[in-house]
Amino acid sequence: MYSTSSVGSFATVLQDFQLDGMMMRYSRFVPRLYNFCLSLGMEPGKIMPSRAFCSDESQGFPIILIAKQFGTFPFNHGVVGGGVATDRHGPHASHGKDLVIIQASHVGYDPESDTFGVYRRNQTSDCHSSTNCGKLMAVTQWYIDAYRFACDNIVLEPPDEGGHLISINNLLLQGDRSEGLLLALDQLIAHDDTGNPILVRALSTARRFRASPLLIGRIGEQWPSDRAMPIGRLLTAELFTFRRNLPTDPLNHLEQNLINPMPWIVTDAAPALAAAQVNTQVEFDRTYRTISQEQGYQQRNLLFIAGLNIDISPRPDQIFPLTKFIPWAAYLQTADGGHRILEQQALYEALMSSDSENPNKIDLEEAIRVMEQSKEVSISFDFRH
Length: 385
Ligand SMILES: [Zn+2]
Hints:
There is one protein chain. This protein has helices at 13-16, 26-39, 60-70, 89-93, 134-153, 185-188, 213-219, 254-259, 262-266, 271-291, 344-352, 364-373; strands at 2-4, 24-25, 47-52, 75-76, 78-79, 83-84, 98-110, 115-116, 118-120, 129-131, 154-160, 163-169, 180-183, 199-202, 206-210, 229-230, 240-245, 302-312, 322-333, 339-342. Helix 2 (26-39) runs parallel beside helix 3 (60-70). The strands form five sheets. Strands 2, 3, 4, 7, 8, 18, 19 and 20 form an eight-stranded mixed beta sheet that branches. By secondary structure, the protein is α+β, with helices and mostly antiparallel strands. 30% of the residues lie in helices and 26% in strands. The protein starts with a strand and ends in a 12-residue tail after the last helix. It has two domains: 2-131 and 268-373, no CATH class; 143-245, no CATH class. The structure holds zinc ion. Zinc ion is lined by residues 54, 56, 81, 106, 133-135.
């Protein structure tokens, strides 16, 4: 299946996901979430939480906190990259009276270099850092490479007596490619009265055109006056789209989630953060629709919350990361058929107005000790004889 990204509603998608002032430590977020669930009418001891997290070990600390605060190990709705396995709704629905699903895409953060997308792997021989989320970054890399090629191979040239000039690599001028970065040529190149591009000269590997008034106005005083200059990051998200042959595997839909907003991801100052934000937004919208169609979830108390896990890269002496959560949206429904969506600000306020102390939390060490000291249960296989 060929997928082509499109310009449009994604222009604001990242701005709509507010980060500043929305972040909370996981150790505060989970008890607040638990108390919020009780305020919705859920019953202590009868709630089955589920997490839809990436398989990355950095997601372990949030899972431990969910187990501690909800008093049970959470069901697993997660696929690599932070997608929701929507084919697991039925089993989840049958494992508890009241139901919670927590979806979060994740991104690493190195506080020393103030960089998103990296995370120290303390279990490697040299404690080196690697990408985080590795899956989202692996999906994004092909697009970043294509974007960098375009940044280097579109050249702004000083104006001559006829006006501003732009040279574009011949590969980038082929709009019928089955895969690649496709330029919005109408926005880059000036056209004559008959609608044809104004070609000035064919070079060995590129063509030189008159630049469009739109581009000249957008670049303004940054247009070079004395020598040619690659367009670089002045190639903004509105000026291109991507086309790629994507697999149709429904369980491998992460790239499909990201391809439309990909121009905004690759041009973002922190592509790993942008990719995680977008994935959370798309997964919330997609999963919400599947919940309303799942028979097992009908007439049940249910909370589906989506957000972003920010994994603060651990120091070599730290066992766990200091993970923070930024909520994006929630879907609530009650057993009497009521349902509503909480957008980001309302969700944040609902969490912050819930108590961060949970008297029902369990002592995990004590629970493990009790299990270790419990009388051995002998299992007989005699029934086979
Ligand atoms: Zn990951």
